[in-house]
Design a protein that fits this description.
237 residues; alpha/beta; Ubiquitin-like (UB roll); Rossmann fold; 3 domains; 9-stranded mixed sheet; 3-stranded mixed sheet; 6 helices; 36% helix; 25% strand
Length: 237
C-alpha cells in the first residue's frame, strides 16, 4: 500500500512540475511585446524613439496578441523600411530576449519646392518635408515629382564636392533638359546646361564670381551662360 501511495505521489508531483513548465512556457509565448529598444545610427532629424515605438505598437495591437517566440523579425523590418524617412532598419533579438531596432534615417540632399514640398536624399528617394532649423538645403523648383529627381540629386551631390558650390548653391530648376541655378551671394541666374563638363563649368563660374567681386562693371548682368566651351556669356536681359 505504501509503495502504491508513493507511486501516486510521484505521479502527482510529475504532473505538477509539467504543469508549471507548460504554464510558464505558454505565458512567455503570449507575452505582448510592448517595450522595444530603439536606437538611431545618427542623431535623428525627423523621427524619434517615441514615434517609432508607437508605430510598432500599433502594428502589434492590430494583430491582436503578438507571440514573442513567433515574432517575424523580417516582417517588422519590412514595415519599418516602408516608412519614407527610414533608409534602413534592422530588427534583432538581444541575448536577454529583448527586441532591438536599429534605424538609419535618410539624409536630405535637397528640398523639392512642389505642392506639397518634399525632401530627396542622395539616391533620389523622396520623403515628406518637415521644417528643420538651420537646414540650408538647395531647393529644386518643379511642378511635378518624377524620375528627374534622381538626376537632380546626383547633380547636387557632385556640385557639393566643390566647397564654393556647397556653400553657395541656392536653387535650381530644369528647362528643356537644361539646368538653371541661382547662388546665395550673387543675383544673376546661371544657365548651367546638362551634367557634361561639370568641373569646367564650376571653374568658369568661380572665376566670373571672383571678377564680379572686384569689377563694378560686372554687377548688372542678369544671366550668365556656362554652356559654351572655354567662355562665359553674360547678358543684361
Amino acid at each position: 500500500m505504501k509503495i502504491k501511495n508513493d507511486i501516486v505521489f510521484l505521479v502527482l508531483m510529475l504532473f505538477f512540475l509539467v504543469s508549471i513548465v507548460s504554464f510558464s512556457h505558454q505565458k512567455n509565448m503570449v507575452r505582448v511585446v510592448d517595450e522595444i529598444k530603439i536606437s538611431f545610427t545618427h542623431f535623428p532629424r525627423f523621427l524619434d524613439t517615441i514615434l517609432v515605438n508607437k508605430l510598432l505598437t500599433q502594428n502589434f495591437r492590430g494583430k491582436s496578441v503578438q507571440l514573442k517566440d513567433s515574432l517575424d523579425l523580417n516582417m517588422l523590418e519590412k514595415q519599418l523600411n516602408q516608412i519614407a524617412e527610414i533608409q534602413n532598419a534592422e530588427v534583432f533579438v538581444l541575448p536577454k530576449g529583448q527586441v532591438s531596432v536599429s534605424i538609419r534615417e535618410r539624409i536630405p540632399t535637397l528640398k523639392i519646392n512642389s505642392i506639397p514640398s518634399f525632401y530627396a536624399d542622395a539616391s533620389g528617394a523622396i520623403f515628406p518635408f518637415i521644417k528643420v532649423d538651420n537646414n540650408q538645403l538647395p531647393i529644386f523648383k518643379t511642378d511635378t515629382i518624377d524620375a528627374s529627381i534622381i538626376n537632380v540629386a546626383i547633380l547636387i551631390e557632385r556640385l557639393k564636392k566643390d566647397t564654393f558650390m556647397k556653400s553657395e548653391l541656392k536653387t535650381l530648376y530644369l528647362d528643356d533638359a537644361s539646368y538653371h541655378l541661382k547662388l546665395k551671394s550673387y543675383p544673376f541666374e546661371i544657365i548651367f546646361g546638362n551634367e557634361n563638363a561639370l568641373n569646367e563649368k564650376i571653374e568658369k563660374l568661380k572665376v566670373f564670381c571672383a571678377f564680379q567681386n572686384i569689377q563694378d562693371s560686372l554687377i548688372n548682368y542678369q544671366k550668365i551662360n556656362l554652356t559654351y566651351s572655354n567662355q562665359v556669356v553674360a547678358t543684361t536681359l
